[in-house]
Amino acid sequence: MVTGRGSGTGGLAAPSQIRSRLPNTLVALFGAAALLRIGLIAYSDYQDRHAAVKYTDIDYVVFSDAAEHVAAGRSPYDRATYRYTPLLAWFLVPNLACPWFGKALFAACDLLIAAILYQLASAASDQTQSLNGGRFWLLVAWLFNPVVFVVSTRGSAESLIVLAVLAILLMASLRRAAWTGLALGLAIHLKLFPIIYSLPLFLYFGPRGRPRGVVATAARLWPSTSDQWWLISTTGVSLAGLTLVFWIGYGNEFLFEAYGYHFVRTDIKHNFSAYFYFNYLTALNPHESGIALLAGLIGFLPQAGVQLAAALALHRDLIACFFVQTLTFVALNKVYTSQYFLWYLPLGLLHFIRLSPWRWQWAMGLWLGAQAIWLGSAYLLEFQGLNVFSAVHLASLGMLVMHVSVMWLALALRS
Fold first, then answer.
1. Which stretch is the leader sequence (predicted)?
2. Which of 17, 178, 218, 332 is least surrounded by CB atoms within 10 angstroms?
3. Could you report the per-residue pLDDT of 78-112, keeping only the tens digit for each?
4. What residues have CB less than 8 Å from 133, skipping those under 6 apart?
């Protein structure tokens, strides 16, 4: 377990412990990963032009259209289905001149994520560990994971939020509370879910030692160190500053489309959530829309309870804490797709390389097996037109069981 100040082993470490140069083998590894992504980006143009099934994600078209709107002085929300921060549209304004720019940006984020993973893994493991050990295979598992490189080269922006989350972990490992707060504010602005990391980070930068009693525990929720005050202030400056700028520019429509929409969203297709069948049944009856909305809001309660428990129990080991928080947030969400897996995948890789090999082997087997079962039933439903909603529902429940099992493997009997 990690201590609050980064001493000890098994978690984050002090700055002196994470300064290392990438060996030539890793330079070659990064080079191969970059070439793979360049090749796929080039190929995507060919497939988009000549194949009935496009390689480029429809979201990338939405991003590019929104970028065109902001470049012309209009709102990105003039583009239907754009439900992201305007910052993303501004990032992709170069798409107007280079249509592949955004894909290259997201692919570059993949490589930056890998570099941070290597740094964090080096800090959390034995510095004498051979290159053929966990850190090397961690990079292989990220850089050459088909889900990772396909998502980014198709033009999905998930790598941006993953990069922001790992930047939070890196800054925390360096004990840079102010920079941690800036990264946290940016991450929350990009996607709401990183707000779950606020409490464990606050506690991590607080006094060491375990409080005894309810009163002492409650007292820890008031800032008592300069690091905690820096974290609070810079998070507020970063988040409030970005939000205020875009609210002034785009009004309440920005607040609803970027944030509010996700509280009322329902999706009965391409959805791994255990709420899948409920969403489907209520969608068939417009008179039950109020029930569906209420159930969706109530569905946040289990998430909130798990987040609080994880923050209180695991905040001294931020890698484990962030992984458990993100895993359970996704697993208990009322809507999630395969892209959501990228939110917890790098955190899981970081955590499991510190544990016995059998744990990650079982975790990977469960993860792949549950997805295979779900995808098989979803294929019969969506492409074969068979009435297998019950089978998809059971497969979605299986995904929930899988996530709970992976969490148990991550935490039970930790050495």
1. none
2. 218
3. 999 999 999 999 999 999 999 999 999 999 999 99
4. 125
